[in-house]
Request: fold
Amino acid sequence: MSARIGVVTFPGSLDDQDAARAVRIAGAQAVSLWHGDADLKGVDAVVLPGGFSYGDYLRCGAIARFAPVMQNVIDAARGGLPVLGICNGFQVLCESHLLPGALIRNDVRKFVCRDQLLRVETANTAWTSDFADGQEILIPLKNGEGGFVADQRTLDQLEGEGRVVFRYLHDNPNGSYRDIAGITNDRGNVVGLMPHPEHAVETLTGPSLDGLGFFSSVISQLVDA
Amino acid sequence: MAPIDSSHIPPIEQPEKPVARVVVDVMLKPEILDPQGQAVLGALTRLGHSDIVSVRQGKRFEILVDAAPDAAALDQIASTLLANTVIEDYTIHVEEQ
Reply:
């Protein structure tokens, strides 16, 4: 039986359909989850997709954090459920305190949309196990508030515990501290990043197939489990 | 025209006046970059206000409470929803009506 991966739709989510499609292309079953239903439908993993949940009102992800579905996601993530937050999903994970730090407006004061080279700093997470440490991947980036910030102690802790998962290469697009593009929690089951792996799963529409590795990683771990 | 008989219409209930007005101010912490403030500063400089050296942009929430304000509840609201204490500081002012 194939793995069942839930994709949450909030009001204002944009990339939920692309995320679901990436899940299917990677060989798993995509399960739609609705922000207003406190029901994870027994999924094996959850993707919080990109977009502008609740119009980015208040702060990006701040209102989505309190959506009915999120309490279940937060509880399940603390229990080890693999959760991937992409772009707005990363912002929701930080607002939920499942991941440390916060995302602020790009230092360049512009929305940045381009294909972005990243270095995978650790394959020791639920969503990167199919990559090699140090592997370079090319996936789309598109955000206006993608600057990752945290205090020095938190940044040192992330680095020291091997929890910086992705770093921007060559040109930091948004002022993220220490070029951090994505991080994980201490168990490695929750990963958040600003760039969009779900847009790099087909040659027709993406700059590479590097995004598939995120989904194949979690699928192979679910099959092994 | 016959006079209107309004005896069957119940009087309009006057909503009780809120007993407190709470103002919550939220500002980015000083060490966090504020690109919006920088953009405003840039515009002011272009307008000739060369004496203005810094602009920081924040948020102000005006809240009416229909009960005696509960300081602990207000702090909870401010620290969990209105502000992200990872990057923002907040102050709460309660104005009795």
In short: The mean pLDDT of chain B is 89. The first helix of chain B runs from residue 35 to 46. Residues 20-96 of chain B form a domain with the Mth169; Chain: A , fold (CATH 3.30.1280.10). Chain B has two helices and three strands.
